[in-house]
Amino acid sequence: MQLGELEKQVLHYLWNAAESDAKQVHAVLGQSRGNSLNTIQSTLDRLFKKGLLGRTKQGHAYCYSAKVDREALIAKLITNVTSDFVTEGEHSLIAAFNSASANLNDAQLDQLQTLIEAQRKLRRGG
């Protein structure tokens, strides 16, 4: 899955807004970028078809909301990008992390270790 620049900006906006229709998104993003309302509507529809947005009909318009959070999308994108390059039995997220972790400093590695430990606790039910 690839995301265009406008699609990324729309997602960022909808992660911070509870719910918005195309006119609201256009007022915030479209006008400043020089995009028409039609372009914003098409972008929202593409993101809906990609499974990244949910929508409900309200009157004549759809109201959109983020269907996946930022972290879930990042994980999905990493998996999609790396899946063609991993060997059998290797997990794409681990392969991507192994490569990217060389750029992390000690504080970031400590933070990652804390997150991993918290995830293990959650899985154990406590």
Word description of this protein:
The structure is a single chain. This protein has six helices and three strands; from the N terminus they run αβααββααα. By secondary structure, it is mainly alpha-helical. A three-stranded antiparallel β-sheet has the order 1-3-2. Helix 2 packs across helix 3. It is elongated and about 50 Å long. The two termini are 35 Å apart. The mean pLDDT is 87.
Mean pLDDT value: 87
Order of SSEs? HEHHEEHHH
Strand order of the largest sheet: 1-3-2
Cα(first) to Cα(last) distance is 35 Å
Helices and strands in order, then pairings?
Blueprint: H1 5-16, E1 20-21, H2 22-33, H3 37-49, E2 53-58, E3 61-66, H4 70-82, H5 92-100, H6 106-123
Antiparallel strand pairs: 1-3, 2-3
List keywords for this structure.
mainly alpha, 3-stranded antiparallel sheet
